[in-house]
């Protein structure tokens, strides 16, 4: 039977005796077929994992509504799943609920899966029809102060291999603005010492060249001398000479933040990325080159950085404050 000729009722329910493809009646089969389609499209492992996790989450939320077949999903089921997820605490014992950005990302994963089911003819009515994106709050972007950066840089014990490695990692994050996944994937062969450029692999398997400073070059060369020759070509390695994984990098940076007693800002690789963008703009960098360095496909996020940091608001306020000038 041609899957595109499946005759479903208007409500998405099946008629007695009707035969359907397994993707129409078995959620797990549908998920596996969708993930296979994603791999065939050569999506990154990270993206495939995102779809695997989000569709599993959707499956659990639908089972709670006694919905186990894709053909039975209705718009109300989707809305109930969104409402349930939005009102469920992220962690036990915590009062925090999922942010609008988190919900929007989750729903994008659900929508991609449901749209695929509809496009492939496994469901006739798309239950996501008419369901828009979550309106996100406009929050202040957290960045490090110069004093916090200096404190963080002074925290690792640079007389040890791991300490100097971590110091160099934080310098690299600040000097280049690369994502944590991009940093973890840098290989020795990706570093162009003559031109002071690093080739990184960003979202969607897109390569780009990111410049780095003379100051970082000095630190990187010293790190490479300490690193020595090992089997892996990955630049940043652990004490077992294996690639230093994303989770490990995140953990050590968080620990340095705790040791340095940094408060008021989350100590993470992504905060270094925001701080790079802030200082780049405040030091006179332009939006187009920043977009290229950060690897953004649109100017929207870069415009946000420009609007926030193109002038030193505190300095301007100090100069033009009505109270100060009375």
Automatic annotation (TrEMBL):
Keyword Nucleus in annotation: no
Say if the entry is tagged with keyword Cytoplasm. yes
- Superkingdom of the organism of origin: Bacteria
Q: What are the residue boundaries of the Tyr recombinase domain, all occurrences included?
A: 139-319
Q: Where is this region: Disordered?
A: 1-23
Name-wise, this protein is Integrase/recombinase XerD
* Keywords, alphabetical: Cell cycle, Cell division, Chromosome partition, Cytoplasm, DNA integration, DNA recombination, DNA-binding
Q: Do you know which PANTHER family this protein is assigned to?
A: PHAGE INTEGRASE-RELATED, TYROSINE RECOMBINASE XERC
Major localization listed first in the record, in broad terms = cytoplasm
Q: Which GO CC annotations does the UniProt entry carry?
A: cytoplasm
Compartments annotated for it: namely: Cytoplasm
From the UniProt record, give one GO term of the biological process aspect. Answer: DNA recombination
Describe the location of the Core-binding (CB) domain by residue ranges.
25-118
Read off the Gene3D superfamilies from this record: 1.10.150.130, Intergrase catalytic core
Under Gene Ontology molecular function, one entry of this record is: DNA binding
Coiled-coil intervals, chain numbering: none
């Amino acid at each position: 039977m041609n899957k595109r000729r499946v005759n479903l009722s208007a409500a998405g329910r099946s008629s007695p005796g009707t035969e359907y493809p397994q993707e129409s009646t078995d959620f797990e089969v549908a998920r596996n077929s969708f993930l296979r389609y994603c791999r065939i499209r050569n999506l990154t492992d990270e993206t495939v994992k995102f779809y695997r996790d989000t569709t599993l989450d959707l499956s659990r939320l639908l089972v709670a509504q006694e919905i186990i077949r894709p053909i039975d999903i209705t718009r109300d089921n989707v809305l109930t799943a969104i409402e349930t997820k939005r009102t469920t605490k992220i962690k036990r014992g915590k009062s925090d609920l999922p942010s609008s950005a988190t919900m929007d990302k989750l729903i994008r994963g659900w929508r991609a899966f449901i749209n695929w089911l509809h496009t492939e003819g496994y469901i006739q009515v798309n239950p996501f029809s008419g369901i828009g994106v979550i309106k996100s709050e406009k929050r202040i972007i957290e960045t490090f102060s110069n004093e916090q950066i200096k404190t963080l840089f002074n925290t690792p014990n640079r007389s040890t291999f791991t300490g100097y490695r971590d110091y160099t990692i934080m310098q690299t994050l600040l000097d280049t603005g690369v994502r944590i996944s991009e940093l973890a994937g840098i290989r020795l062969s990706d570093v162009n010492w003559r031109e002071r450029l690093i080739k990184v692999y960003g979202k969607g398997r897109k390569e780009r060249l990111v410049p780095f400073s003379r100051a970082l070059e000095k630190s990187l060369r010293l790190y490479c001398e300490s690193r020595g020759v090992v089997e892996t070509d990955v630049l940043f390695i652990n004490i077992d000479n294996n690639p230093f994984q994303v989770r490990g990098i995140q953990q050590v940076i968080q620990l340095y933040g705790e040791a340095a007693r940094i408060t008021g800002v989350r100590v993470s690789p992504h905060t270094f990325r925001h701080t790079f963008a802030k200082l780049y703009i405040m030091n006179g960098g332009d939006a187009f080159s920043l977009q290229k360095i950060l690897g953004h496909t649109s100017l929207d996020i870069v415009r946000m950085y420009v609007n926030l940091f193109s002038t030193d608001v505190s300095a301007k306020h100090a100069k033009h404050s009505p109270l100060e000038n009375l």
